[in-house]
Amino acid sequence: MKAWLETQYEQYNRRQFVDPDPLACIYDYANIADREVAALIAASLAYGQVRQIIRSVSDVLSRMGPSPYGYLRNTAIDRIGQDMAGFVHRFARDCHVTALLHAVQQILVRHGSLGQCFQSHLADSEKTVFNALCRFSEELREEGACGSPAHLVACPEKGSACKRMNLFLRWMVRKDRVDPGGWEVIRPSRLIIPLDTHMFRICTKLGLTARKQANMKTAIEITEAFRQWCPEDPVKYDFALTRFGIRKDLSEAAAYYFN
Fold this sequence. Notes:
- The chain has 259 residues and is mostly helical.
- It has one domain.
- The protein is built from 13 helices and 2 strands.
- The protein has helices spanning 2-12, 32-44, 50-64, 68-74, 77-83, 94-111, 114-120, 130-141, 163-173, 197-205, 216-227, 238-246, 251-258, and strands at 88-89, 92-93.
- Strand 1 (88-89) and strand 2 form a beta hairpin.
């Protein structure tokens, strides 16, 4: 299994296989402060048809200008609401995106950056980021003057696999040919697999879980399974394996391995 996983990683963990993936929306942000804001927006909107996800993420980021961090540090909340007016992405409306951006704005004021906020909730003794993710999500869900970001921020303590938030963490913590990284103080060994339907089906086929629901317990179980082959980076194979469910040009390979 280790050899097979490494083969998939070497073959598919490449920039040429990123499209279509909202990850592509954050590559242009060399500044970490901008990248983490853009990444959180991209991950929060990562549900539904992938091409629509990319259009929606690009729409929000274009409204914020060249520096998402600078925009939030220098723009009043009423102006943010005006700038996001008319935005729609499936169940998300302009009010939800405005509330999310306001929550990020408040975190930047309190902590200086999203990375410093997350790190402040992460205890050295904890094996995974789960507890820190709970606290970080709470800060993002705090209802302020703009209301709540609602479903854009999942609740890990309620059992959700939090695929989008764990995807955000993968992008910001890991650094290789695909993941750009930026949060160097957080170890990749503590990440949790971003579990979606594609990854759940693949991991079931690989015998990494017998659970019936793609929830947080299942995500942690699968992460532990990957840890036996790569303890220092258990989500290393996530991008490569999920290509089989996302890219049509890999459908034949997917059928060979997983059907």
